[in-house]
Amino acid sequence: MYVELKHINKNYGNFQASKDVSFGIEQGKLVALLGPSGSGKTTILRMIAGLEHPNSGEILIDGKVVNDIPATKRGIGFVFQSYALFRYMTVFDNVAFGLEIQKVPKDEIKKRVLELIELVGLKGMEKRYPNQLSGGQRQRVAFARALAPNPSILLLDEPFAAIDAKVRQELRSWLKNMIEKLGVTSIFVTHDQDEAIEVADEIIITNKGRVEQKGTPIEVYQNPKTAFTASFFGQPSELVDYKQFNTFKDLKNVDKVFVRPEFVKVTKKSEQQFYKTSAVEGVIEQIFFRGNTLELVVRVGDNVFTARRGLDEELVEIGEKVDIFLYRIFVTSGDEAHLVQNQSIREESLVI
Fold this sequence. Notes:
This protein is of the alpha+beta class and 352 residues long. It folds into 2 domains: 3-223, 3-Layer(aba) Sandwich (Rossmann fold), CATH 3.40.50.300; 232-349, CATH 2.40.50.140. The protein is 24% helix and 33% strand. It has 8 helices and 19 strands. The strands form 4 sheets. A 6-stranded mixed β-sheet has the order 6-7-8-3-9-10, with helices on both faces. A 5-stranded antiparallel β-sheet has the order 13-17-14-15-16, with no helix packed on it. Helix 2 packs across helix 3 and helix 2 (91-101) packs parallel to helix 4. The protein is globular, with a radius of gyration of 24 Å.
């Protein structure tokens, strides 16, 4: 592993921000630290950078313990959410700043800076100032500045949070392509699940200072290992009484049950229901237009949960009675979670 954290603990007074955090990251990977506010993800990032110091445990980079190595000597580039550009410096001078601090020869600085400005798609804007750039352009300057000293690791703290939705979507693809091209090990903090799924090679989910789960986006999404991950990832709804649904009545040691929208089939009374004997009646309580789908809030007895229906299907109405079939559910017991398939359908008939 190129970056390793071993049994890291970090306290701020009586508050423990990191609790026995251990994980490894392979060289060249783009990894997302994903979790709710206050889950400890930014603390982890800042400890890797050397901006914070753990109370115990070891941080290793390329096999070397760096706990006592200052931030300026760790070979790390850092991109902040707020860009942190120098307002009175041009694009060129902002990108060159770190190299000038290192006293790199001027001809080498010029060559490196112009290469990076072209790499991030800002060629011809070298003489502009930050206030003459869009939010997306400013963030690209921040990326270029962080990359200028050839860091071994690139750290990004919610790099797209201050950018509007359309530009954020464009920058996600751009960042992933750029990291793949450069091969620099990169770790970014986000609370946006879609962002983590789209951009990251691996996701590390944090909660209350702990690492809950680590894996590829597909692994973490489809196979949550802990109760928190099952309740956090995706768009889960908790079922108050899962026994109101057919074929889920014999579960043992159940603490909580969650269902995701893609686990639910909503069928109008006038449509064919392939699992009629296993479906239950529900009522549409709310409908939200989400662009390519309709998001439905459905009630079945005491259970209220979210489902989806395609725009190519016949419209449903608020208050309409419909048939509800659950393909599967997540069941938690203690701190563990597992997937339970509906017994009335065969494994190969399920749609993920």
